[in-house]
Amino acid sequence: ATRVQDVTLDxxxxxxxxxxxxxxxxxxxxxxxxxxxxxxxxxxxNVHLADAIEAMRPFRQDVEDWPAFRDRLAGRLLGRRxxxxxxxxxxxxxxxxxxxxxxxxxxxxGYLDVTDGVRIEEALLxxxxxxxxxxxxxxxxxxxxxxxxxxxxVSRRVLRVLLALAVGAVGGGLAVALASxxxxxxxxxxx
Length: 191
What we know:
By secondary structure, the protein is of the alpha+beta class. It has seven helices and five strands.
């Protein structure tokens, strides 16, 4: 890789690695090393995919039969199938991943830490459920009609859109702070 490619890769927030058809690491960025707690020096070597998967083991304590899981994963990755999904790691973080076969027989792995967005979504759902419960209790007491006011339904939809935009635009801790402020405002406004 050229110097420009190396700098570009190392400035991505996504963890990126490319393993060749022989299963050996061809390139990776610092974010990949950080996400999987790998020694950056190992990334310049000829690390085999099986060793990289083994280094991920501490983050996958939910896997009961590790050898079988490792072999299936290595086979799937080297089998050159496109894939994407989400990993909930044992450290509480959540990663979205994608695997992309490349024309030369290699496979590109990409990982993105989406923990903050997932936590915001969970908080939003909890607030919406609490709001719905308050609404149902008020209906049971005869204080409200059974159907929520259209303005409240629209406001909840708008809140979800705003939070999605906030997470996508700013990410990280700033998105959490922004989402918390929005949740406080909406809760105070709608209740």
